[in-house]
Amino acid sequence: MLTNQELTKKVREISLNYFKRPFEHEAKWNQRLRTTGGRFFPKDLHLDFNPKMAELEDFEGVVLHELTHYHLYRTKRGYKHQDADFKRLLAQVGGLRYAPAVEERKVKYDYVCQNCGQNYPRQRKIDTKKYRCGKCRGQLKIKTSRI
Ligand SMILES: [Zn+2]
Ligand SMILES: [Zn+2]
């Protein structure tokens, strides 16, 4: 994952590319964000981003959303979701209206190779007669079932 510094650099690049305006503040990861992609803080003009969305293809759309808040606020236009300025600029740059859904991976079954000890966390039950350890071809055994 990017460091806060690298994230800020990326936000700066996106800002120049799409808005033709510089992003002059800081961007950082915020682990506590759950389903929101990011947040804009009018007080000190920094942006928070959800690290769970960092790997998503749509992450740039999340950055564009927060930058739309940022640039409108700085140019004293309607920067809130319901404002016409916000809707217009967001559509113009192609930012996301809503944060993409992040599904937390739910591991329900834990398998382990009886030969080499390699773990296989899985969401679904697997047929241990058919599937073998990918490393050593050993037999898999269920360790725990979390349903
Ligand atoms: Zn927003
Ligand atoms: Zn094995």
From TrEMBL:
Pfam families in the record: SprT-like, Zn_ribbon_SprT
Domain of life of the source: Bacteria
Keywords recorded for this protein, A-Z: Hydrolase
Enzyme class: hydrolase
GO BP annotations listed: response to stress
EC number: 3.4.24.-
Molecular function per GO: hydrolase activity
Domain SprT-like: 5-143
NCBIfam families, A to Z: PRK04351.1
Name of the molecule in the record: SprT-like protein
Organism: Lactococcus lactis subsp. cremoris (strain MG1363)
Record lineage: Bacteria, Bacillati, Bacillota, Bacilli, Lactobacillales
